[in-house]
Design brief:
Blueprint lengths: L3 H10 L1 H4 L2 H12 L3 E11 L5 E15 L2 E10 L1 H49 L5 H33 L6 E5 H17 L7 E6 L6 E5 H17 L4 E10 L2 E8 L6 H4 L20 H11 L4 E6 L3 E9 L6 H9 L3
Parallel strand pairs: 5-7
Antiparallel strand pairs: 1-2, 2-3, 4-6, 7-8, 8-10, 9-10
Helix pairs in contact: 1-3, 4-5, 5-9, 6-7, 7-9
Length: 340
C-alpha cells in the first residue's frame, strides 16, 4: 500500500475528490489515526448501459495498522429503503397533524355557525313574546324562520360532508333526461329570483349541448350540485345573465354554470372547494360547506370539478360526469352518437 503522505497528497489534490465528504473524512481519519462511523452520504452508482442510480448510504471507516502499514477498511451500508420509509413516515405524520388541525378548525367553525342562528332564534323569539305590533311580529317571524332554515341547512350539510368523508354516502343511479332537468332548474330559480329585489335584473339561460341526452347518475345529487352552483351565481350577480348548460366531450359530459358577477380573486381559487370557505367573507348567510360537499359528490360519482374566474367579468363553475359509468369505451361512444 502507498505510504500515507502519498495517499494524503492524492486525496487533497485530485480535483473531484477535494469536495467529496467521504474522502475528506477518510483523510482526516488517516491524519488522526482514528476510525470513523455514521457518515451519511448520497452516492451515485453507475450501472450497466451508462445508467445511474442514487443511493442513501451510511459509511464507516476502521483504521488498522497491519505489518507496519496503515489501512482504512471502508464499510458502506445502503439505507435507501430506510430513508424512503422515514420520509413516508414523516409525510404521514405531517398529514395526521394537518388532519388534527383541520378537525379542530372544523369543530370551531361548526360551533360558531350553529351558535349564530340559535342565538338569533332565541333572541327574536323572546322579543316576539313582548311585542304587540303586528308588523314587528311578522318581521321577527321571518327572521326566526330564516335562521331556522339556515340551521337546518347547516345540519344537513354537516351530515352530507360526514358521509362523504366516511365513504358512507349512498347513490341511486338512474337514467336522467339532462335537457329536462336543466330546464326545470332554470324555471325554479327564475321563479325564486322573481320574488327578490333582483327581479328583471338577472336572466337564467339554458345552453343544451345535445338535442336529447340521457345520463346514468344520481339525480338528487346532480340537482344538489347544480343548485348549489346556481344559488351562488345568483347571490354574487347583481345584474346580467346566468348560463347553465353542458357539452358532450368524448366519454363525459361537461356541466357548467357561468355568471356575469363580480368574479373571484385568483389567490382564492385554490381553496374555494375547502370546508367553511365562503366566496364572500362578509357573507352571513350560507354555511361555507356547499362547494366542499359538491366536490365530494362529484369525486364519488367519478367526475372532476373546478372553477374559472376573472374579477369584474364573472365566474364559471364546472364539473364532469362519465356518460355511462358501467359501459366500456365503445358503448359510451355509441351512447353519445345516439343523441347527436
Amino acid at each position: 500500500m502507498p505510504e500515507r503522505p502519498i495517499i494524503q497528497k492524492r486525496l487533497r489534490n485530485t480535483p473531484f475528490l477535494r469536495s467529496c465528504p467521504i474522502r475528506q473524512t477518510t483523510l482526516k481519519a488517516f491524519e488522526e489515526k482514528k476510525s470513523f462511523s455514521d457518515l451519511e452520504a448520497t452516492v451515485e452508482i453507475k450501472l450497466n448501459g451508462n445508467q445511474e442510480t442514487t443511493c442513501n448510504t451510511v459509511i464507516s471507516g476502521t483504521y488498522l495498522l497491519l505489518d507496519g502499514e496503515e489501512n482504512m477498511v471502508i464499510t458502506v451500508h445502503d439505507v435507501t429503503k430506510q430513508k424512503r420509509t422515514e420520509e413516508e413516515l414523516k409525510i404521514a405524520k405531517e398529514k395526521a397533524e394537518k388532519a388534527n388541525l383541520s378537525k379542530s378548525a372544523f369543530l370551531a367553525n361548526m360551533s360558531h355557525e350553529i351558535r349564530t342562528p340559535i342565538n338569533a332564534i332565541t333572541g327574536f323569539s323572546e322579543i316576539l313574546s313582548y311585542t304587540n305590533v303586528e308588523e314587528e311580529k311578522t318581521q321577527y317571524k321571518e327572521i326566526i324562520k330564516m335562521n331556522a332554515d339556515l340551521l337546518l341547512q347547516l345540519v344537513n350539510d354537516i351530515l352530507d360532508l360526514s358521509k362523504i368523508e366516511a365513504g358512507t354516502i349512498d347513490f341511486t343511479y338512474t337514467n336522467i333526461d339532462i335537457n329536462q332537468l336543466l330546464s326545470d332548474l332554470r324555471q325554479l330559480f327564475q321563479m325564486r329570483i322573481a320574488h327578490t329585489e333582483k327581479n328583471n335584473k338577472i336572466e337564467i339561460i339554458t345552453e343544451l349541448g345535445l338535442s336529447a341526452c340521457l345520463i346514468k347518475t344520481d339525480q338528487n345529487r346532480l340537482i344538489q350540485v347544480l343548485s348549489n352552483f346556481i344559488a351562488n351565481a345568483i347571490k354574487f350577480t347583481e345584474s346580467g345573465n346566468i348560463r347553465i348548460g353542458y357539452q358532450a366531450k368524448e366519454n363525459e359530459l361537461y356541466f357548467y354554470v357561468s355568471d356575469t358577477g363580480s368574479g373571484i380573486p385568483q389567490d382564492r381559487l385554490q381553496d374555494i372547494f375547502e370546508r367553511f370557505v365562503k366566496l364572500n367573507k362578509e357573507e352571513k348567510n350560507g354555511t361555507g360547506l356547499g362547494l366542499a360537499i359538491s366536490k365530494g359528490i362529484i369525486n364519488k360519482l367519478g367526475g372532476r370539478i373546478g372553477v374559472e374566474s376573472e374579477i369584474g367579468k364573472g365566474s364559471t363553475f364546472w364539473f364532469t360526469l362519465p356518460l355511462c359509468p358501467d359501459c366500456d369505451l365503445t358503448e359510451r361512444s355509441n351512447f353519445l352518437k345516439s343523441f347527436n
